[in-house]
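Hi everyone, sorry if this is the wrong subforum. Our group has a chain we'd like a structural model of before ordering constructs, and none of us has done structure prediction before. Sequence below.
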Amino acid sequence: MLYDFTVGDKVKWLSHSKGKWVEKRGEIIEVVPAQRGVMLDKYKGTYNLSSFSKSMPRLHESYVVAVQVPKGKPKLYWPRANQLEPDEN
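Answer:
Right subforum, don't worry. Here is the predicted structure as tokens:
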């Protein structure tokens, strides 16, 4: 199901990496219009970009999500919009 999120909304999604599923929780920091990519330059120095998956512009509206980590800068992700759910916690 696709939700209509706005900047500041808390979200969660499941991510699969290295043979295991992990639930990620974060905050929407940018709404990306359909057919547009994400310009990472504005986030350098503020966020950890190492986990950000760059890809071609998406055909639908999508979201950049910041996830807090125990140490260091929050990590940025660009998950598929159909995987995001509201985080009620």
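For your construct planning: The chain has no helices and five strands. Residues 10-86 form one domain.
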